[in-house]
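Take one protein record:
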Amino acid sequence: MGTSLRALRAFALLAGFHLLTLAVLGTLLGAGIAAWTWAPTAVAVKVTVLSVLLGVPVVRSTLLLDRPGHADVAGLPLGESEQPELWRIVRSLAERIGTRAPDAILLTGDANAGVSEDTRLLGLLPGPRRLYIGVPLLTGLTEPQLHAVLAHELAHYGNTDTRLAGLTHRARDSVLRTVEAFQEQERKRIDKKRSRQEKAAAKAVAKGREAKEVNTGRAGFTYRTAAKPFLAYARFCLRATHGVGRAQELAADRTAARIAGRDATASALRETAVLVAAHDFYMSRYATMGVPAGLLPPRGEVFGGLRRLLAAPERQENLATLRNEPPVGDLSPYDTHPAPADRIRLIETLPDDSPAAAPAGPALLRDADRVLAELETAVLTPETLALERVEWRELTHRTMHTLTTEGARPLREALAAAGLPASPASATADLAAFLDAVDAGSLWRIAGHLPASPEAARARGRAAREFLRPALYSGLRDVTELALAETAAARWELSWAESARLLLPGGRETAEAVAAAVRPAVGDVPDTAPLRELLRTSAV
């Protein structure tokens, strides 16, 4: 599809959204006028209020004219004087592709790359160009692979894909934003109704009556209905742009293979899929694990720590599996990017007639530690930046201690509610009180004070015990681990190969021993001896 036809289609899609908006607002206005003309005042007031509530999401989405695409992506500008090698590569690739180089390069925190162009007159006039490079790509790609990724993105400039991207994205984003606004209101109504019904059920159980089943089937029905025309138009927009979007990606792949080499381009796609998965895992399991405890890794390690995960010997087998098995099939029927496996297969059918590839060294980033620290300042929120910075080892121990303390809280509160001695400052004292109570036959009296779902609260006899046993086991395990940290100097240790482990002095692991000791204590015939023995032999 030529540029003129793509421009016409993008303009038509955006115009269609505004026409749909006017039609919906007109319908709501007409309903209000009709109600005040023919219906009783009480009905007219209700219709007017409903029309206003339904019209607000539509008007708000129409008036939100923020620029779509990459314009609002937080990133760190990389000046040519600071990163001359990177700029030299980008300018050389742009020249070979036959397009104008970007005016700015921004480093981002995600495992992706992209381009944008601030065009004018609906894409007819070019504007400033920006290239976005995710720091995981600079961390995990070799230089030839980086060349392939950059050539792919610059090819979008050469194919004029970015000239009309703003208009196309504006149409899609506007309609999707409207749908999301309606769905948000629908969720609020559902949550409100569920909360009200759950409170009523809890009160009924407390009074010995049978609780009604929670049913939110009709909650948010009005918003759900109002969203349907916008949802249908969103599907139409996505289908209308789906084919051309995929064709643009495949064309950019062919350009990358011609410029950077077939093998480098295919391997870049494989490695990028690995980096996306590894980055998501790292950010959730490592970089942000200390946030509940008010902690962050050392400066520069929020994004820079990914290299530690990628270099861990124990992770290499998993990474190789991801590398050899890229994602297959469509992630979404409307995704403009074909599946990585399909893109790799098509690239590998191309002739490898490119010049000799550059040496397979690491991607270039001058003064990486300083840049990674500055990236955090550029992309993290002020609240996140204000968190305390500690080394990885201390971060792991303090974070796990905080999470374990929270996990133990329901059992410790149940102990206090049962009228037994409890000490919020000492898990060791709470554990001793719990074990004494179990030996005295009070296990299930304590368990009765644990939080329970309405279904669990209705259960009686053995069924009630089976509902409560997992919470008992989990809470007792957490209290035991806290006690080991207090009395045996046990510490949670960081591992780049698996979850954090609680180790005793000398490196002795506790997981299996704790599980084996806790399980008998919450059995049908409770036995506290194994747990008491574990505490005795572990004490320093």
